[in-house]
Design brief:
Helix content is 14%, strand content 44%. It is mainly beta. It folds into 4 domains: 2-100, eubacterium ventriosum atcc domain (eubacterium ventriosum atcc fold, Sandwich); 103-185; 187-250, Antifreeze-like/N-acetylneuraminic acid synthase C-terminal domain (Type Iii Antifreeze Protein Isoform Hplc 12, Alpha-Beta Complex), CATH 3.90.1210.10; 253-311, SH3 type barrels. Strands 10, 12, 13, 14 and 15 form a 5-stranded antiparallel β-sheet that branches. A 5-stranded mixed β-barrel has the order 19-20-22-23-24. It is elongated and about 100 Å long. The protein starts with a helix and ends with a strand.
Length: 313
């Protein structure tokens, strides 16, 4: 009745603004998932409170799995100064217990999450497994719908021991970050030199054998070859037993500087070939300068085969 009288007088403009009442109905309990506590969390209804005041942060929420009790007096002290100067009327409970429910993320679940992330970076049906995640114990994450993100550290896909950062978000807010160190294996077929291969030798499958091994045990930052590099040549000597890596081959030189080459040109059904001199070495699909033997004009052409190029516009 008192509030209605004050409200009526306020409408008539007969009382100062600071005497206008604010009615707050307090909940008895509330479960929260975010990091910030607002009036919206504490109240079941209100009168005379703006949307900005209801959504403004009062304090941090309890730690995951913990609770905190907010009395009416504690709430008043946390209110914005614009509300503290007003006449506050209470209804509902005398205090509100704020709970932040959680569930435990186990070591097994952590392995499953990292395994799924590794699988997204590897070919389908790859033979890999996480061996251990030392020091990883159960830890709390928010109960309910949680968005999980995994970030593999640099070099994780090439080393037995690697690190990953797990982030758990609830309602768009970052709730938990966990760094995990893990030991894993990745078995696959590799190409291994059957005998010594000299620098510049053509690479042929007959001089290699395929063996299965844990490729993470092979030293170096580069990955072993997946498909055999047919038509390539050795970039350096390869001893017997050497696993073929991504930096072990180069494209063969199909055109040498000063070679006489044939240049093809096709346009709207017109086909022309001219003889020219290569101004530089060239490998397949490389664009190099050539000089027309007749006009001595220099232009660019792309290498397609041994001493064979096409005009490059």
């Amino acid at each position: 009745m008192k509030f209605l009288s004050i409200l009526f007088l306020a409408v008539l403009g007969l009382v100062p603004t600071e005497l206008r009442a604010v009615v707050l109905e307090l909940r008895a309990t509330q479960n929260v998932v975010g990091n910030n506590l607002t009036l919206n969390d504490l109240l079941s209804s209100s009168q005379g409170v703006s949307a900005d005041e209801l959504s403004a942060s009062l304090a941090a929420t309890p730690s995951l799995g913990k609770s905190d009790t907010w009395t009416r007096e504690k709430i008043v002290k946390a209110l914005p100064s614009t509300m503290q100067s007003q006449n506050i009327e209470w209804s509902g409970a005398t205090s509100c217990v704020i709970k932040r429910p959680c569930v435990q993320m186990t070591d097994r679940e952590v392995r499953q999450i990292i395994t799924a992330e590794l699988a997204s970076h590897l070919p389908a049906n790859s033979d890999f497994a996480i061996i251990e995640t030392p020091g990883t114990e159960s830890f709390p994450i928010p109960d309910g719908q949680v968005e999980t993100q995994v970030r593999l550290a640099s070099g994780a896909l090439r080393n037995e021991w690697a690190e990953a950062t797990l982030q758990f978000r609830s309602q768009g807010e970052l709730a938990v970050t966990k760094n995990v160190r893990f030991h894993w294996s990745y078995n696959r077929l590799v190409w291994q030199a059957a005998g010594r291969i000299n620098n510049g030798d053509s690479l042929t499958a007959s001089t290699f054998q395929q063996v299965e091994m844990n490729v993470l045990k092979i030293p170096g930052s580069l990955a072993p070859a997946t498909d055999f590099p047919d038509g390539k040549i050795a970039a350096h000597p390869l001893p017997a037993g050497k696993v073929l890596m991504e930096n072990d081959w180069v494209e063969p030189v199909l055109v040498a500087r000063n070679d006489l080459v044939t240049i093809s040109y096709e346009h709207h059904g017109l086909s022309i070939t001219v003889q020219a001199k290569a101004m530089a070495n060239g490998v397949r699909n490389q664009v190099i300068a050539v000089q027309n033997l007749s006009s001595h004009k220099i232009f660019n052409a792309r290498v397609i085969d041994q001493r064979s190029l096409v005009y490059d516009e």
